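Dear H.,

Thanks for agreeing to be a second pair of eyes. The structure we're designing against is below in token form, covering all 192 positions.
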């Protein structure tokens, strides 16, 4: 991947997309081979990963922020911006166990993107939530790219992949089928 690039990964369920992202993020170890990373990574891999359902949204901002390596002071300085971006309003004081998956995605995305990571991993996060928040999240990703963030992007939405990605990898049963331009790979992927 190149700096500032949005690199998409396509494949059917079970192709190994999420496993690959977890290996890159350091959540899983590869059974063979190696991964070389150059930069800090903000992973948006599993909705609710690192969240505690008994804690409120605010408490989970601190918990998740600390897990991502943010200092308590930094979180305090940025909490209003995180809450505003998430659009959770009064629900931010409600325990997460009462959140929908879309609300959790909003909160996770808002926390992970409050800094300008060098590498952002996005796994199906933009598939959850309403159209307005998806559009807002896409704009945030595009602004991060303009700032030099590299994005590793997995989505079943071929339109999102076509719209956001510079290059695409087609993964099938853990094997790379092809890497290329979005339109070329999506056309071939659809005709399989």
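And this is the sequence the design step returned. I haven't edited it by hand at all.
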């Amino acid at each position: 991947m190149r700096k500032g690039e949005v690199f998409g990964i396509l494949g059917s369920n079970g192709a190994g997309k999420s496993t690959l992202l977890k290996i890159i993020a350091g959540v899983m170890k590869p059974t063979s081979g190696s991964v070389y990373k150059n930069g800090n990574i903000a992973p948006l891999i599993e909705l609710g990963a690192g969240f505690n359902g008994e804690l409120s949204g605010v408490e989970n901002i601190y918990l998740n922020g600390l897990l991502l390596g943010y200092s308590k002071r930094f979180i305090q300085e940025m909490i209003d911006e995180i809450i505003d971006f998430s659009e959770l309003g009064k629900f931010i004081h409600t325990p997460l166990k009462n959140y929908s998956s879309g609300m959790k995605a909003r909160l996770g995305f808002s926390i992970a993107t409050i800094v300008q990571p060098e590498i952002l991993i996005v796994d199906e996060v933009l598939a959850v939530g309403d159209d307005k928040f998806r559009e807002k999240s896409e704009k945030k990703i595009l602004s991060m790219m303009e700032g030099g963030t590299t994005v590793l992007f997995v989505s079943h939405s071929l339109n999102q992949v076509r719209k956001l990605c510079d290059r695409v990898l087609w993964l099938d049963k853990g094997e790379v089928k092809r890497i290329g331009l979005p339109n070329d790979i999506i056309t071939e992927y659809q005709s399989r």
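Two observations from my side: The longest strand covers residues 167-172. The two ends are 25 Å apart (CA to CA).

Warmly,
E.
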